[in-house]
Amino acid sequence: MMILSANTQWVLLSTMMLGMAAGVVGCFAYWKRQSLMSDALSHAALPGVIAGFAVLGAKSLPFMLGGAAVSALLGALFIHWIRTSSRVKEDAAMGIVLSVFFGLGIMLLTLVNRMPGGQQSGLDSFIFGQSASMVRQDVYTMIGVTLLVFIAALVGWKEWKLFLFDPQFAGGLGLSGRLMNTVYMVLLVLVIVIGIQAAGVILMAALLIIPGVSARYWTHSYAAMLGLAALFGGGSGIVGTLISTLGDGWPTGPFIVLSATSLFVVSLAFGSRRGLLVTFLQQRAQKMELTRQAPARESVERGG
């Protein structure tokens, strides 16, 4: 029986919490048809991380994550500004912000690495994540954010359903679309900020997108999809972390994403609602039914 070290147990708990929170918030992004938003804001967080280090000249995780939050929120504001002040569509605006902010982050990273002590800063780890560096305080933070996400989803249960599926009707009932958008964006940025240490700015987007999409292949129910997405996200975090412990220096983030991808492939193939196998069997049954009814139709037409 494999015995996990104390640090590995903390990492395991933190990645499970991160996956569950990402699954729920990722569902919101999926229903708003803004899955690319999570990708854009994940990449937009990188300049804030580098700037946080550059301002202090030392590695202070709270300060750097605060910079990531500010940078991601700026990215969201730029997306909104481009969409409302020009004829550029939302997906194009997201692509612009993703590219510009990530390019700025890489440029800042290059400059910081040339500073004294920059090479030892470990800033490169924020691109692909470094779960092994997490400590107990990071786990407590992830648990707190995960609970906040769950509370927000439960307290605003009816409001979220109205906002996500029929925003015009929700506005007619007096539900503030601006308030709901703000809460949604804050939750998304929070999950991204706490997740970039584990999964990195590149892979964090996958953790936000894949569990929700996978859950969609199993159910049409709002509640069931949220639950399955949290289950898939948390399970991917556990499996990916355990696999990474099997090798020396194996990165946790990529294995988490690969675990989530494996769940997606299974869901795509065997999902009970929209899976390829179920769709194939339904189409085959329909063809057989049409073939069986064809002689009866022909006799009716001849008799008529």
Automatic annotation (TrEMBL):
Localization per record: Cell membrane
Gene3D superfamilies per UniProt: ABC transporter involved in vitamin B12 uptake, BtuC (1.10.3470.10)
Entry keywords, A to Z: Cell membrane, Membrane, Transmembrane, Transmembrane helix, Transport
Membrane topology classification: Multi-pass membrane protein
Membrane-spanning parts: 12-31, 63-82, 94-112, 139-157, 183-210, 222-246, 252-271
SUPFAM superfamilies from the UniProt entry: ABC transporter involved in vitamin B12 uptake, BtuC
InterPro entries per the UniProt record, alphabetical: ABC_BtuC-like, ABC_TroCD
Superkingdom classification of source: Bacteria
Similarity comment: Belongs to the ABC-3 integral membrane protein family.
Protein name in UniProt: Metal ABC transporter permease
Record organism: Paenibacillus medicaginis
Lineage: Bacteria, Bacillati, Bacillota, Bacilli, Bacillales
